[in-house]
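Honest question from a wet-lab person: if I give you the sequences of every part of a complex, can you actually get the arrangement of the whole thing, not just the pieces? Trying it with mine:
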Amino acid sequence: DTAVSQTPKYLVTQMGNDKSIKCEQNLGHDTMYWYKQDSKKFLKIMFSYNNKELIINETVPNRFSPKSPDKAHLNLHINSLELGDSAVYFCASSPGLADTQYFGPGTRLTVL
Amino acid sequence: EDQVTQSPEALRLQEGESSSLNCSYTVSGLRGLFWYRQDPGKGPEFLFTLYSAGEEKEKERLKATLTKKESFLHITAPKPEDSATYLCAVQAYDYKLSFGAGTTVTVRA
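Yes, you can. This is the full assembly:
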């Protein structure tokens, strides 16, 4: 029974395209996150939503837009993809803002 | 800005050879320090949370400790299945989690 799931697992696309990554959690958590892990393996927070409200919005280009239709879902839409967007994107969730975060399996995005 | 530095970057161990990983941090008010394990191609898997200096947590062959400036992850008598990248992260009072670059541990049989 997957706790935090992401689709797709792999995404290969051309520069300039628009793409979305979906995340769902079945843990009943109130808080969800998007992280980016670059080639140097650093995990960096991008966004955090608590009860569908945007709480953390790091210095991420406006081309990235998170959408939370309900507490169990947090999707990431990326417009006008660039080569530098290639990375692994992880979704995570936690019961609350101060609690342990549980990560999904990741989506490897490759922009050609 | 919160900073997390992990050392060494890579660690090669013989099965049964105990060792320690270091995580030093500077943070504007520590809410908690987290250890995760990440296997290739997978998401980080939660191991421990430490909240205050002097706290220790154990799980099988792993033991995490915390001081005011650093945390250690001790691996006792490691097995090949302990091979992974171990990530340290600190949570500040603004709730943001800042990760280190990780230590990649390889345990040879």
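Two things worth pointing out. Chain A touches chain B through 22 residues (CB under 8 Å). Residues 22 and 56 of chain A are 19 Å apart (CA to CA).
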